[in-house]
Predict the 3D structure of the following.
Amino acid sequence: MANLLIEIGNTALKAAWAEGRTLGKTVRYQGEKLRGFLLGTLLAKEKPEVLVLASIRDIPEEDIKEIEARCGQLVLIDRAHPAILRAYGLPEYISPSRAASIIAARELFKGKPCLVFDFGTVLSIDSVAADGSYLGGNLSLGCRTRFKALNRYSRNLPLVDTPASAPSAGTSESSSIEAGVISGIVFEVDGYIAGAPGSVAVFTGGDASYFAGQTKNSIFVVSNLVLMGLAAISEDYESR
């Protein structure tokens, strides 16, 4: 029987079935009816042996009971259920997605120090030692969040989107915003990498591939890093 992995983030739900640590097809849902999609679509036909649900949002108790009834074992990681983070040597304050990314990175690059960059609504940067211990991390604004902040908190600046390619210097109001935001993130990321010589730089999240093309550093892009971490957790629980 396969395991089901679900990540509920700031903007979307991502899910995948897995056999051990091998991921199947990934699905993404950005609608408002998360409960209906989870129970009516993901859990409609097949009962997973282990269901790992990592959520930035609190899950209502009645939903938890219904999910538990539809799987062999539920592993819930949210603000109300942080115990699993302690079990993996991680602090309770980090988000479930950051925790899963860290768990996956230290499995993929075992024996090497890592910097894990997650390019989403928030840009998170987490540091992992060569022995797998967590050294700490930083949070910053994600790319689109920066564009929205400039538009919202200034009187006249327009809302722009991520350009296909950003100029090094703007020649108009819009291109100045594009250049400033993109260059700012690139300088930020390159600074972290320069400050951790010998570390493996791992990019994940929605904008990972975009910024992989902006940096001149050697990096690894792992698009499903969070789900890979959840797969590792599901396999650990399945073997117990």
The first strand starts at residue 3 and ends at 8.
